[in-house]
Fold:
Amino acid sequence: MRKLYSGLAWTVSGAVVVQAAAIAFAFGGMLNLIAEGGVVDKALLESFQAAGVGEMGFLVHGLVGGVLIPLVAVALLIVSFFVRVRGTKLWAAITLGLVVLQVTLGFSITGSPYLGIIHGANALAIVVAGAVAALRVRRARLTETAASLEGATSDAVSA
Structure:
């Protein structure tokens, strides 16, 4: 269960990195379209036929952020109840809470573009929370291994 928990936590962090790359690719393509004389307007965005470089980035950003990351974060919280390491439930809950905030901000950006500032900063917080969640399990394993080696050494010395 610890490996599954750690894998899910790293998946959340990695998926946020994929999401950041996808949106950078999308906006780079949009800027390229504008630089070549194209126009980005509501009709173009609703047609899904821009066929410009980077258009796929918007789709990847939406699917990873709106579907994949929330599902993995929920799975992380569920798995945390079966992992016997201190703090796993807390960090899984923090990660899920940040993901819920992120999705809410993502859908609210069209109404208030300034929320994009919080959306970007919160993405970094999700990466950190996922990494901390994964590293807590690793640290617990290393501590247990060191304790068992220390116990074995003291038994050998007393014999």
In short: The helical segments are 2-35, 42-47, 55-80, 88-108, 115-158. The chain is about 80% helix and 0% strand.
